[in-house]
Amino acid sequence: MKAIVNVFLKDGVLDPQGKAAHHALKSLGFKNVNSVRIGKQIVLDLDATNKDEALKEVEEMSETLLANTVIEDYTIEIVE
Amino acid sequence: MKAIVNVFLKDGVLDPQGKAAHHALKSLGFKNVNSVRIGKQIVLDLDATNKDEALKEVEEMSETLLANTVIEDYTIEIVE
User: Fold this and answer.
1) Domains of chain A by start residue, with CATH
2) A20 touching B (Cβ < 8 Å)
3) What is the three-class DSSP state of B45?
4) N or C: which end of chain A has fewer CB within 10 A?
5) Rg (CA), chain A
6) Quick check: A61 contacting B, CB < 8 Å?
7) What is the ipTM for the molecules in this complex?
8) Is A47 helix (H, G, I), strand (E, B) or coil?
9) Is B64 within 8 Å of chain A by CB?
10) C-alpha distances in angstroms, B77 versus A8, A55, B31, B58, B80?
11) How far apart are CA B68 and CA B80, in angstroms?
């Protein structure tokens, strides 16, 4: 079973990596970009057969290690 | 219009960040994780009304700046 965790900075938290990419895109001539936010996409390959259990476990992983919940939010998607 | 670009390392390219996360998850007691790959998720807010044109532009951004196509692949999703 595959789980995809998208971790992104909360609204209002400064994203210097995104700002840098935005600036670079503008320099390259891409004028109609309003904002750029850069997050992480974590793809986990799991030994699990039960979708609900997998979701619960990945939630625990996200809370303890994958995301810094002070400044980051995350979404979890279980695939197949 | 919002565009989401997922950038991830090609298969076979070593992912030290993913390896570290995998190791840390195992140390924390999450035993049934087989592998972890970590990529980037870039969310762009665009001034565009035409979906096809937006897709074309984001493709160009990905090729020139957002992804290193030697070692990385990317997918683009245009939202609303």
Assistant:
1) 2-79 (3.30.1280.10)
2) no
3) strand
4) C
5) 16
6) yes
7) 0.89
8) coil
9) yes
10) 17, 24, 33, 9, 10
11) 27
A43/B37 Cβ within 8 A? yes
Alpha-carbon span A41 to A8, nearest angstrom: 9
Query: Could you please report the per-residue DSSP string of B11-41?
Result: TTS--HHHHHHHHHHHHTT-TTEEEEEEEEE
Residues A26-54 have pLDDT tens digits of: 999 999 999 999 999 999 999 988 999 99
Which residue in the set B21, B43, B66 is minimally distant from A65, CB to CB? B21
Beta strand B2-9 pairing with A33-46: unpaired
- The whole-angstrom distance between B76's CA and the closest CA on chain A is 14
Report in angstroms the alpha-carbon separations of A48 from A2, A12, B15, B29, B44. Answer: 9, 36, 23, 15, 34
pLDDT over 80 at B20, yes or no = yes
Q: Assess A5–B contact: CB distance below 8 Å, yes or no.
A: no
